[in-house]
Amino acid sequence: MNRIRKGDQVVVIAGKDKGRKGTVLNVADDRVLVEAINMVKKHAKPNPMQGVEGGIVEKEMPLDISNVMLFNPVTNKGDRVGIKILEDGRKVRYFKSNGEVVDV
User: Looking at the chain, which terminus has fewer C-beta neighbours within 10 angstroms, N or C?
Assistant: First the structure.
């Protein structure tokens, strides 16, 4: 079970975008793609056959998963996440600071 999933609100804790919040768009291995975070300028070649215009395109690049923390709306900060098994056998994520369950 992953501690960070697609659709989660996260806070960047290291790098050039430190302190910024965003929504996770994709999680692959140990990399996360966060909306409007870690933007880079990419030089795209035009391809008239596919209708692609050339020029400089801004796009998001993945961050290492260790550089983001799940955002806790109660404390308004990034928080560590743990995994526990409930009485009914479900695995859920919870915030380590206040023990509140992330998944409902």
Answer: C
**What is the b/e burial string over 30-56, where b = at least 16 CB atoms within 10 angstroms of the residue's CB?**
eebbbeebbeeeeeeeeeeeeeeeeee
Please state which architecture CATH assigns to domain 9-73. Answer: Roll (2.30)
Q: Determine the Cα–Cα distance for residues 58 and 63; give it in Å rounded to an integer.
A: 16
pTM of the model: 0.88
Side-chain-side CA neighbours of residue 52 (13 Å): 11
Residue ranges, the chain, pLDDT below 70:
none
Give residue for tokens 């966060």: 34
In the numeric block, the tokens 């799940």 are attached to 70
